[in-house]
Each structure stands twice: as C-alpha cells, then as structure tokens.
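step: validate -> pass
step: tokenize input -> pass
step: predict -> running
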Amino acid sequence: MKIIFVRHGEPDKTYVDEKGFIGLGRDMAPLTDTGIAQAKEASGSPLLHGGQIIISSPYTRALYTAAIISKNIGLDILVEVDLHEFFPDKTFMVKGEEENSLLHQDFIKCMGEYPKGETRKWETISEIILRTKPVMDKYYDLGYEKIIVVAHGGVIRRYTGIGVIAYGGVLEMEYDKNFQCYGWV
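step: predict -> pass
step: emit ->
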C-alpha cells in the first residue's frame, strides 16, 4: 500500500494561548494564513493523484489541512484518533507553549525514549509506534492501495525516517504489515 503523508500546515496558537487553554485544548489551534496556503499547495501535489481516502489526525491543524485537501481533490476524510501528535504530557495538563517547549526539549535530549529506570510525562517514540501502526495495518487489511494521511511531524518521521518535515510537506512511502518504523531520526 502506498501512503502519502501530508504534514499539517503551520498552526496559530495565539487564540489558545490568550484563552489559557491547557492540555488537549491547546490542540484546537487553527492554521495561520501561511498554514492555509501550505495546505492549498499540498493539495496540488501530483503524489495525491490516485489516493482513495484521506485519513486525518483529530487535531484541528490536521483536520483543517485535510479539509482543504478534501475540498480540492474530492476525497472523503476519515478521522483516526490514534494519529495525533505525540503527547508532551500524558497527564494532559500542559499550561502553555513555554512548558510544552521544555517537555519537548527533554524528549529531544532523551532521543524520544526514557532513560533506563526513569519515566517522564511525555509519550515515547515506542508508544507512538504502538498506537499508530495498527491504524496503518487497518487500511492495509481493508485492501486500500493508496491512502493520504494528514498527520504530524512526530508521526510521519516514524514512517519516513526523515528528520525535518516542512509544514504542508508531502511524502510518499510503501507500506506493508512487516514495515519496521523508525526510532530516533
């Protein structure tokens, strides 16, 4: 099965910061004007031709991107909750971008896995793989030949092995159930 990954457009966290949203409320941020333009540009990628369905993360930035692509190429969207970005805080209490950034820096310092004998608030790369691979397997088992997946850099890295993925980036890969996801890249 071919998977065409599209990273969501650039988010605008101004509103969620002003409102003091915490945890998953922070993931209600819409796209910036640039993010909308990135989604429109992604919808014109020839890699999307022949796609059978759009699968999207439930986060607003991904759904907004998927909606633009859906409108422009005429495919339905299915939401898969397990395609969300990594949880910087599995207690869902991140209070702002500063705290989110500190947790993400620790994730990077630890290369996405807890040091031996320690735990952290954030979700590990291994946990990301354990929740996302069954989603890909599901569409493989359903017989899809080409799906479009609108998700987040942290998810897309596990499947492409590419470390830096631009907002609105479009990447193609071959997938079967024996696929081995990438750890730290």
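step: describe -> The radius of gyration is 16 Å.
step: cleanup -> pass
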